[in-house]
Amino acid sequence: MRLLLLTHAFNSLTQRLFVELQALGHQLSIEFDINDSVTREAVALFRPHLILAPYLRRAIPEDVWRQHVCLIVHPGPVGDRGPSALDWAILRGEGEWGVTVLQAEAEMDAGPVWASASFPLRGAKKSSLYRNEVTEAAVMAVKAALDRWPEYQAGTWQPGQPALRPMHPLVTQADRRVDWARDDTVTVLAKLNSGDGFPGVRDSLFGRDCWLFDARPFDAVGNPGELLGRVGEGVVRGTVDGAVWIGHCKVEGGIKLPVGGVFGGDWLGLVEMDAALNPPQPPFTKGGSSSVVQQSASPFQKVDASLDQQPSPPFLKGGQGGIQTFPDPHITYAEHGPVGYLSFDFYNGAMGTTACENLLAAYAAARQRPTRVIVLLGGTDFFSNGLDLNRIEAADSPPDESWRNINAMDDLCRAILATDRQLTVSALAGNAGAGGAFLALAADRVWARRGVILNPHYKNMGNLYGSEYWSYLLPRRVGAERAAGIMGNRLPLGAADALREGFIDAAFGDDPATFQAETRARAQALAESPELESWLQAKARRRAEDEAAKPLEDYRAEELKHMQRNFYGFDPSYHVARHHFVAKTPHSWTPRHLAVHRDLGWVVPEGEG
Ligand code: COA
């Protein structure tokens, strides 16, 4: 079928559907929902059999839905209607939620239902639910809806009219407002989660209005609403029955940044509390003889004594530019037998300079351990999205901060590449983009959850050249020609395609929990394999041969030469693109590589249309 994806943006859900539907052999084109005439033009050019709207913020023009079947993906169960569907579900503490694929009609979310899928509602940020449960349910429901097409065409099946629930309104800040004197931790978290990643919950910190993001429960007691201290770059705030940690905020006219970065001196004045966040779900804490260690000044103090044969190297670097550095609560190290697991659950997968440096220190310490395999787990929602563009945007000198950040990222990649005593694995439970995707390739093995979407390219960010040793890592996995294709076409890569192309080595697990369980079993098997020694020898041999052919430092120098031009040169494209990305400037046109129907050579296949 020819399917037009009409969407507000090419977001993670749209990308996943794009990848899945393409794999089924459908012909796809994308148009951003910018205005009605652009939509009409796209429909006239592409002549789709069906229009699919995975992520819309406005109604489809009447003449379009009257002449074409338009299927809307609504993030709510059958009969649920209105905006803020997921927000309300979180605020009301629903136990189960769903996704409905319904046909567009005059009344919003009231059209006939083609398919639906449901899931238990996890206590998590809205964006996390969207990227995981909602996306999986949407893929299932959209595929089921498309399966109905032949019967629908033949007139042997009609979509059913649902029993409608009352339309719910847009969630307002009043609905989300935290009543610190009354709300318990669960309620505070539900309110903050309902607005994360957008629009946040309006509140105040240090007497200044701001929107709050990135909240986690924290094990402390204090006066409700009071700032009890700081951990990492966030603050701990009391609730009536405990406390929460808040990592990010946004002030009027500003962008989302770590609380410490926004409130500097005031924030520094808070007492520094124990780094252990409660929880960023350290993986693999259940069963077996695992031990979990939060990054701290002496990182391995809690590790199983039998494994603790090496001295613990110092974990933290000294202050940078007079600013105190701190243990990063997003970094967790756990050991299970001969396998070390390093997770780095940075907000939105963004890795700023200090995050990279702290992670490098954590990695260096992990390398010193007598383990056989090191697994890089990334975060739960994203493995990594590369440089922290928000921090760069907020820096006094974005070019300088970009330069520091990419060098810190490259140092981390190099340390992984240079690991000789252990086999390294990147295990991607969540998506990875730009430099974050190449960070994954620095490991010896790359595994991904089946639903993961990779964006292993940089050009969307103002023609950024990219570094992270991609010019070494990518061709050696997929060949030079395909490497050029991946970098040039700027399209998302699903795990199945990535596996077929050799970009990754395995894809398994339908949800993060099964992925983690299988990762653990596979890592254990690697570590215990009689072939491990020969794999390590082969790796050392190959690294030596590659180094002799062209030193890693040469790849880096070449990449950084381009990056230096991106950061400091005459062409400001990267800075402009970054600004629009960070400021979330609405699209004014659909990029040509997505809108196939706008290709000069595009014609509807003969006999069709
Ligand atoms: N730095 C800072 N924030 C980032 C980020 C980065 N590198 N990558 C993503 N984010 C933020 C987004 O701004 C968004 O913020 P929100 O919570 O305020 O909504 C959130 O993470 C999710 O990103 P979004 O773009 O909505 O997710 P997606 O799944 O639809 O798309 C990517 C994923 C990776 C394709 C897209 O985020 C992207 O292109 N990121 C930039 C990658 C990059 O160029 N890095 C720099 C070069 S290494």
What does this structure look like?
Helix 4 packs antiparallel against helix 8 (185-194) and helix 10 (353-368) runs parallel beside helix 12. The protein has 20 helices and 23 strands. Strands 13-14-15-16-18-20-23 form a seven-stranded mixed sheet, sandwiched between helices. A six-stranded mixed sheet has the order 2-1-3-4-5-6, with helices on both faces. Strands 7, 8, 9, 10, 11 and 12 form a six-stranded antiparallel sheet that branches. The protein has three domains: 2-170, 3-Layer(aba) Sandwich (Rossmann fold), CATH 3.40.50.170; 173-268, Methionyl-tRNA Fmet Formyltransferase, Chain A, domain 2 (Roll); 299-566, Alpha-Beta Complex (2-enoyl-CoA Hydratase, Chain A, domain 1), CATH 3.90.226. The protein is globular, with a radius of gyration of 25 Å. Residues 278-326 have low confidence and may be disordered. 37% of the residues lie in helices and 20% in strands. By secondary structure, it is of the alpha/beta class. The structure holds coenzyme A. The site of coenzyme A has 23 residues, from helix 11 and strand 19.
CATH class of the largest domain: Alpha Beta
Largest sheet: number of strands, sense, barrel closure: 7 strands, mixed
Strand content: 15-25%
Distinct ligands, ions and cofactors found in the model: coenzyme A
Write out the strand line-up for the largest beta sheet, numbering strands in chain order.
13-14-15-16-18-20-23
Count of helical stretches: 20
CATH fold naming of the largest domain: 2-enoyl-CoA Hydratase, Chain A, domain 1
> Nearest-angstrom radius of gyration?
25 Å
What is the percent of helical residues?
Answer: 25-40%
**Total beta-strand segments:** 23
Summed up, the domain count is 3
Shape: globular
Mean pLDDT: 91
